[in-house]
Structure formats: structure tokens, C-alpha cells
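Work package 3, deliverable 3.1, input record:
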Amino acid sequence: MIISKAFAEEQKLNLGDFVKLEFSPDDYKYFQIYALAENKGFFKNTPSFGQSEINFVTPRETLSRFIGTPDQVNAIYAKTIDDTTIDESIEALESIYEREQVNKMVTKTEIDAQIRPIRIPFMFMLILVVIISVFIIYTSFKVITLERLPTLGTFRSIGATKKMTDFIMLGEAMIYGVLGSILGVFIGHHLLSAVMNIIAKDMGTMVLRYPKMNIVIAIIFGFVLSMGSALVPIIKTSKIPVKEILLNIVDGTKKKRKYSRYIIGGILGSLSIILPMQLNEGSMAAVAGGLGIVLMIGALVCFIPLLTNIFIQITEKLFGLIFGNIGRIAVKNMRGNKSTQDNIILLSIGLASVLTIMVIGSGIQDETSRYYDEQNYEISVASSEATRVTAQRIMSIEEISDAYLYQRIWNAYNYAGEEKPFIRSLVGIESSNFLEFFNYDILNESNDQEIIEELLTGRKLILSTVIRDEYDLKVGDELSLDTGNGFRDYKIIGFTDVKENNGQFGMTSMYNLKNDLKRTWGLNMAIKMKPGMNIAEVKEKVEKKLEHFNWSHVDTITEMRQMNEENNNQMIIILSVFSAATALIGSIGVMNNFLVSLLARRKSLAIYASIGMSKVQRRRMILIESISSGVIGALFGIITAQLIMIRITNLLSQISIPLALKISLLSGGVGFVGSVLVCLLSSISVLSQLRRLNIIKELRYE
Amino acid sequence: MSVVVNVKDVCKNFALGDEEVKVLKSLNFEINKGEFVSLMGPSGSGKSTLLYLMGGLDEPTHGEIRVNDKVLKQLKDKEESIMRRREIGFVFQFYNLIPNLNVEENVLLPILLDGKKAKDHQASLDEILSLVGLSDRRKHTPRELSGGQQQRVAIARALISEPDIILADEPTGNLDSVTGNEIMALFQKINREKNKTIVQVTHSEEAAKYGTRIIRLKDGRLV
């Protein structure tokens, strides 16, 4: 047989070793290890705790003889000429071989199941990064159009039509879009390669491969993004009468559509709540959830100027007390200032995105880690051959104080005629002291212990809240379950919020496992050690007791947690890179906005100088404004992130991923300080630009 | 009469590409307390440049300007700023008000910059707003005011610190003739009743008539 390197390493198997495989409870065959394969493709599955499928390769003739079908095959792998003909080929084969199943080697459902945990966070990250990008391009184009205004005025005065000047600006946006997209694809490719190199250290060789068409799609997407974001400032500029441009009397401070912004915000906010409530089933739930978040951010963008003004009004006196009169002037400057508002919006979205990405990553990690931290045993044993005698031998080890015997079955029962298994991970318990080892909370009004005791009597089930919500079940429901050996009626006696196996988890008695599900072999143990014992030594002793068995696992709870964390590691790396990229994009946006704000404020600063504001006072004022923008932006960002968390938590629970996402005090604090620092650093670059301020020029020309 | 402004051998050159343009050429004159001086001359004669030098917003290339016996060139930024808050008031052609502050806030800015409490200056604020005729517009922002009203706010701001000198750069240049005359009458009133020294740059002979003296410039020299 050929097995994977990972499996060989874990089972301490070498080339030439013999492995005993069980075909049925009384039928064992020995296979010799002929080669070790790289841990990828067909051999990618590693038998870490909880994974039950391991692939190996053996000669077809041998296998067909062992399973009693000599000279026969039960599967054929077919290769199509190219990827595009797969579906046609399947159709053709299905029509010829009506009694056979024809499937893709790896079905879309299988891929979806594999990538599901990372697809959702990625979708949200994409949405958030797109929103930030739109905002940055929009604000940048506002400056570009502002700077081009005199040129456009000149063009218009010598006969250019609005369409012509619009076309000039659109042409500029097009060039930025194309160049930016090409550069983006180039940087994206190299960034992806770098991320893959980091991941490859843990995962083995990885090749960066994507259809060439994706490059075209990315460039078109970037182009459309650039054009779309630039369109609003261009349209606004095009509406300015030529006389106003030429006389330089464009008033950017006009109060237009004061209330329409809040009406739009209100509509967006309402839709962000209503849509996910109405469309909460199937694939539409994810779309509606994602859309809900976008709409919610849109609503916040509409309301942030109002909220900023309210915040400033409330804290005006505080600013005066802390920073004196310059603080009072700074806070007055921020009131209704478009650049400040843009900055606060950008900071809010940026920080909310980074926090969301980080919290999703760490949330998955923390949630799985916490499960292991909360258990009251130190070593876990899983063996397909161990018996009660083995268990007794293990318990005779001096350092062990107690052990709990149980069984675990994967993919148990079918319910309501569905093809998928009802419970993916089913634990069968035997004695009532289960809760002394496993810290599971049973969500019933009665005592947890009483429910565990009840579970040992008859056909009873304790199910996860995820299964409860999926099938709309309640305590006392009686279910007719297909055990594979006929239908049996089971009564639900409780629910638990255990997140094990993504919440696809249930419990019954070991008796039911044996009688209804015909599970008569294998054993699991949770072992407690005496205080002060060396866990590595105890583990070694347990392994020694199991060494003559072919398939057994001994893991300490720390190892199990580490394994879990390593499994999540690649996603954490990708999320970290993404959040770093978002933070960078956001910071560039904030810096850009500060420079924009300086351009717009040159005149105001010159006025302040003319009435006696010293350079030190001007610097202080700008620093106070930037720190305050950072503080307000960070506060709104944290609030926005928390609202997004609530939405994502709801959405994830709808698709059976139970994850309570919360912003920790630390990540909130780091985000807060980071935002203020970004503003502070950006304002320092502004201050250096300020040296070149020509006061007289600004004062004399409107 | 005491001299409040003393311009001594003042030259000002500007770099224009590789060339150096001599805007002011060895100017010498004095302005006494209570005078209302109009600086006149054709475009490019250096009138505004001279006004900004007198306000300490720029430095002469050569020579010195004394304001209230202080040599502007020798003052540090902080001292110069304090002087602009307390001893000089500026009024500009384009009003130069802070757009997002209301009338009261704009007027009180020099007081706030001086670290004083706004509430301690309510009486003088009321008096000045009454003088410029804007008592009923105190909560309005500049965008809600006409050009003439905005210029009155600028004058009120220039007066709030009780400065000795008011420097005005074409204060009626952006106003219609009726409003312009109203503003000039206001300046005359301030000059006469409050004994403020006013120096204005103007192209208008009519505006200059409101003053007590005319200083004419041509090609950077007094004529």
C-alpha cells in the first residue's frame, strides 16, 4: 500500500512495515507499506483528531479479491480532453451507463464544504475592502476635480461643452483605472505568492494557479471600480456653471440636500435590517446577510456627519478644558468640516474592517481553543481495537487518577429522508459521571446531571443547538431516525451549545450505539491524571499499552488544541495578510484625506495666521483636530465593527457555523490607539507641508 | 502726534523664475497715530506688498519697519503673532472669514487666540456688533451673509482686541459702490470716534477720500 507521509509520521510507520486493515469485524488483512506519498491531492487528508477518512492506494486486483469481487472494478476515473467538456462528458456517460453513478472527481459540493469556513470571512473582507477603495478613489477624485477646475473653466470658456470636459475627466479616470488595475494584479499576484510561501511551510508544496480569465476579470473590476467611484465628483463638477468656475466663486460649503442624506441613511439602515430577516434561507441568506452589512455601512456613512457633530457639540467643553482655547477652535473647525467627516468615515470603515477580519480569525481560533481549555481531562485516547481489558490496563497506570469510557461515531442516523447524516459526530456515553470529565452545558431548566442520567435510559438524545435550530426541534420531540438497521424512535431530552465539529454534534447512550447502530468495536477514553504528574511520561505509558493495535490515538488536551490551531493557522495567516492590507489601504486613504484637507484649508490657516495665530498654535490646532478625528473615527469604527459582528454572528448561525464574535478589549484598544496614531502620523506629514504655506498668496486670492 | 508705523529704507524683492523682481525700492515714511492713510497706485506698484510687510506677514528684503516702536524683523513668530492679535487688525478684500464659524465666533477669534475667555468679552462684542450693524446676525455663518455684511464681520474681528492699527487690503474691492461707501463710512467713523490708525490699500479715489492722507506708489517707489 501507499500511504501519506503525514499518516506514516503520525503512526510511526516506515517503508516495509505491515499494517493490519479491518474489512469487517472478523476479517483482517495485512498490507505492506510500499511507498510514502506527499501530503497533497488524494493523500491530503491527515488523520488528525476528529478526521475519520484516510486514503491509501493498493493494487486493484488485491483489493477486489479481498472484498470478494475478483476481476471487477467499482470505480473508473476518466479524464476529459479539457476542463470545459466535463459537464458534457458526465451527461453523455450518464445516458450510456444508466445504472451507474457519474460524478466529478471533486464535486462543487465537496469544494464548497472544504472552503466554507474561509469563504464567508473572505466575502466580507472583499466587501469591506471594496467599500474602502470606493471611498478613497471618490475622495481622491474630489481633489483631482478641484485642482482641474481652473483648467476645465478655461476649456469651457473657449467653447468646450460639458460633455467634452466630462470626457476629459472620465478619460483621466479611465487611465487611472487601467493602470491601477494592472498594477493591482501585479502586486496581488506577488502578495498571493508570498502568502502561499508562508502557508507552504506548514502545508508542503503549493502552486499558485488561477485561470487567466481571472486577471481580465480583476482588471475589468478595478476599472469599473475606479470609473464608478470617480463618476460622482465628475458629475458634480460638470454641474458647476462656467461663470462660477471662471470667477472662482465655487462654494464648496453650500448646504445642499441636508435632509436627503439622512432619509437615504434611514432607508439603507431599515433595508439592512429587513433584508436579512426576510431572506434567511438557503444561499439567499448569505447574499442578504452580505448585502445587509453593505447597506448598514452605507447607512452609517450617511449618519456619521450628524453623529460627529453631535459628538463634537457634547464634547466641546471637554476639549476646551483639556486643550484650552486652541482646543475650542479646533473643535469648531471640525464641526461640519467635509474633510474631517470624510476622514472619520474612512477611519470608521477601515477600523471596522480590520477589527472584523481580526475578530473573525481570532474568534474561530479562540472558540476552538476554549473548547479544549474547558475540559476536565488531560489525555484523550481513541482506538478502533481497544477493549475494556485495554482500558483497565491503561487505568492501572499509577499516574492516572480516573478515566471515562465512551464511543464516538461519525455520520450517524438519517432523518426526514435527507441524504446527509443527521448527526456528524455522535458520542455514546456509558456512565453518569460524564460531566466530571466533559464541561458541557446542557441548556435545560432541570439539572445537567439529571439529564445525563436520563440519557442513559432508553433511546434518548442530547443535541447541539445548531441541529436544534436547523430542524426546528424542541425538548420532548420524538424523532424517527434511520439507523441503517431500521427506523428507531428517539426522544430529545436536552440541547447543548457545544461547538464541537461546528456544532454538528449529539449524544446518546453507548447502549444505543451498540444495539441500534451496531457499533461493537473501538473505544474512546478521557483520562485524568493525578496532580503534579508529568503528562509526557503518562502519554508514553498509555501509548505503550496500545502499541500492538493498528489504529490508536493518544493525544494530550494541549496537543489536541495545538492541532486544531494548526488546522486554523493557514486561514489566520490569510486573514492577517488581508487585515494588514486593509489597514495599509485605510492608512493611505487617511493620509490622502489629510492632504486633501490641507489643500482645502490653506486659506483658513492663512486667515488664522493673519489674525494672530502663531505657528505653534496652528500646529497644535491641527494635531488636536487629527487626534480628535482619530478618537471619533476609532469610536465609530469599533461601534460599526460590533454591529457587523452581530450581523455576521447571526448569518453564521443561519448556516450552522456557531461563532460568537466579540471585540476583545485588547483588539478594540489596539484598534483605537492605531487609528489615533495613523491620524497623528498623517497630520505630521501635513505639518511638514504647512511650512510651504504662502500666507499672503492664500489671503489675496479667492 | 506719536508715530505708530515707521517705514525705513524698505526694499522687497521677489524671485520670479531665475529673475529677481524689485517690488519695493527703498521706501521711507511714517504714519502717525489716528491717521487714516490710503495707499494708492497702479496694479503691481507694491501697495499690498507694503501693507503685508507692515502687518508682519512678510519680511522686507532690506530695511526695517517699526510698529509701535517694535522692529518687526526682530520679532519671533510668537511675538509677531501676539502683535497681530493685540495691536494690528486686518481687513481683506475677500473678507477672509472662517466659513464654518458663525459671526460671533469669527469676531471672537483673536480673543480666543490670546488665551482669553470669550465670556469676559461679551460687552465689547455686543458694542462692536452694534457698531458694524450686525447685532441681529450674530448666529449666522458667512455663507448666510451678503458681501457687505461679511466685510462688516471682518471689521468687527479687526476691532475686537482694541488694536491701535487697522490694515485693510482693498476693503471695498469686492463690493458694489453703495455697500462700498457704507463700509468706508464705517472705517471713517472708527477712525474718528475710536481714534484708530487705519491704513488701506485702494484703487478707488472715492474710497481714498474718506482717509486723511494718501500715499502714492509707482513701480515700487513713493510718488
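Chain A touches chain B through 34 residues (CB under 8 Å).
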